[in-house]
Amino acid sequence: MHSFLLLVAQTIFMAVGAVGLSVLTGSEEIPAQPGLWAFLFMVGYLVVGGWLIVRIGILRFSKQSWSELGWRTRFLGKDILIGILGFLILLLVFLSLGSLFDFLSWQEFLERQESYTFAQRLLFLVIGLQAGLIEESVFRGHLQPKCIDRFGLVVGVLIVAIVFAFYHLNFHLISLIGKMVLGLGYGVLRGRNNSLWRPATAHMLTWVVLGTL
Known about the structure:
By secondary structure, the chain is mainly alpha-helical. It has nine helices and no strands. The protein has helices spanning 2-25, 36-62, 66-69, 76-101, 106-115, 118-151, 153-167, 173-190, 197-210. It is globular.
């Protein structure tokens, strides 16, 4: 029950963040100049979400430490490097599938990289930090170990990736497939009990490099 309520709370929190950002920028897509208020809103969203969802919703109710959740720092440099490598492999897979199913070609990807402004990149970074800290704590830190314990490694990772895809509330088939591929990648990086820094690094870089999908 706790895991279900946590997922509902995170979904509501994500929806509130998306609506708030759309209102502040005046667009469903992040414009070239999102503005100071949008940036401050996302910084506040990161701080409040980290406290409510992770600190209260997971650590206090589950009686876990940060380390038990997966945020271990013993091999931090190695875990971040693995996360970067995982992201690069995931980017290659994602863009290959995008070209195959005609939703994001290599040419479109390169054009996006040239078109993004510094302000957009900065906002993507803040959103990526939120995704890396909060979403990875919920999905790969809290839910994935529970699913693996019940269903085994492969099925557990797959279940969490499917839930992660639907959690974004975009039910277009291509979007669901894309989010599930990313979720699978993050899940593989986390594995049975690897450091959360691995999927968190990859998730953050997904936002910084790809931006809105």
